[in-house]
Amino acid sequence: MATNLTTIGAPQGPATTLIYNDWYPAMRSESLHGKTLATAMLMGIPLVLGRRADGHLFAMRDSCPHRGIPLSCGWFDGQRLTCKYHGWAFEPVSGQCKEIPSLTSRDMLDPTRIYGTAFPCEERDGYAWVYVPESGSGRIRADETSLPPVPEAPKFGSRFRSQHLTADLPCNVDHGIIGLMDPAHGPFVHQSWWWRKEASIHEKEKHFEPIEQGFRMASHTPSANSAPYKLLGVYGEPITTTIDFVLPNRRYETIRAGDKWFSSITTVTPTVANACRIDVYAAWNVFYNVPFVTSIATFFGKRFVGQDQITMIQQAEGLKYDPTLMLIDDADRPAKWYFALKHARLEATSTGQPMQHPMCGPVTLRWRS
């Protein structure tokens, strides 16, 4: 059967459409303590983040609504965020202005009717997750019950180790995401003695099915040409892997071998129009009592993510010249599904109608890697 080819224009420029009304990881939350303020760029929005005295995280647009100076230049006492220019003070979770020092007893202005832009912000898996609404949505309370659940990696017990990795990518979020789900680059980009070799390429057959806002690579025995999976064989239990992709940017992987498990959530988050950041959070109870297992996993994990990062930097050089790109079946079918899912969600947002999933049912894909 002839291979189906799809050509696409390089989605590299500022016209790339972002998905709003969802949660994105803004930064690691471990640095948010005491009266510390931190800044982050998320979807082209400058943020200031911190932790109130009660432990609750907050995220505000890093701009005072009075004269636009970054609020991160001011002071935070654990309760209020004060602008350094004129002393306007804000409760940062709601964004409500509590004080305008320049007002006199003759002024009729009520400061509490003024709000800086605050975003719902929650802590999961050591990240500050920020809900970014579509422009014009109005003020959203941090305790809004209609918001979708905050993402997190699945856990299968209370005793586990965890680690995180991050890398900046010089490409827009579309290229970052289709790189994340690409099943054929492993033997080339990640070619190494501890992962796999080019000579290990063989044909694979995987079954996919639609799930809400995404698709799933159904539970299967992982490839025998990946060294980390071979390590799980020491437990003598059947090994299964399930991989989900969920809009707007999340890849979940769960590996089970009896009562031993590994899970991860990987996100590709747009920071500005032509840049994004990949974050990986992993949790596991495999080799729980083995000394230095976290350090070893971190070392190899950084190497793995670094290989993707270098490749994306090199790809960005080629994308500068706006080439026409080509997606093939079956190896690039997940990328096609991503673009179709994104279009369907944006269409549903625009029309107010339910999202129409582009997958009609289970699909079997075959490729070599």
Identify the CATH homologous superfamily of the largest domain: Naphthalene 1,2-dioxygenase Alpha Subunit, Chain A, domain 1
Give the ordered list of helices and strands: EEEEEEEEEEEEEHHEEHEEEEHEHE
In spatial order, strands of the major sheet run 13-19-18-17-16-15-14-21
Number of H/I helices? 5
* Named CATH architecture of the largest domain: Alpha-Beta Complex
**What radius of gyration results from the CA coordinates?**
23 Å
Q: How many strands?
A: 21
How is this structure best described in words?
It is a single chain. With 369 residues, the chain is α+β, with helices and mostly antiparallel strands. The protein has two domains: 22-132, 3-layer Sandwich (Rieske Iron-sulfur Protein); 161-368, Naphthalene 1,2-dioxygenase Alpha Subunit, Chain A, domain 1 (Alpha-Beta Complex), CATH 3.90.380. 17% of the residues lie in helices and 34% in strands. Strand 16 (239-246) and strand 17 form a beta hairpin. Helix 1 crosses helix 5 (333-351). The radius of gyration is 23 Å and the shape is globular. It starts with a strand and ends with a strand. Mean pLDDT is 86; it is low at 9-14. GO terms for molecular function: 2 iron, 2 sulfur cluster binding; metal ion binding; oxidoreductase activity. Residues 23-130 form the Rieske domain. Keywords: 2Fe-2S, Iron, Iron-sulfur, Metal-binding, Oxidoreductase. InterPro entries: Cholesterol_7-desaturase, Rieske_2Fe-2S, Rieske_2Fe-2S_sf.
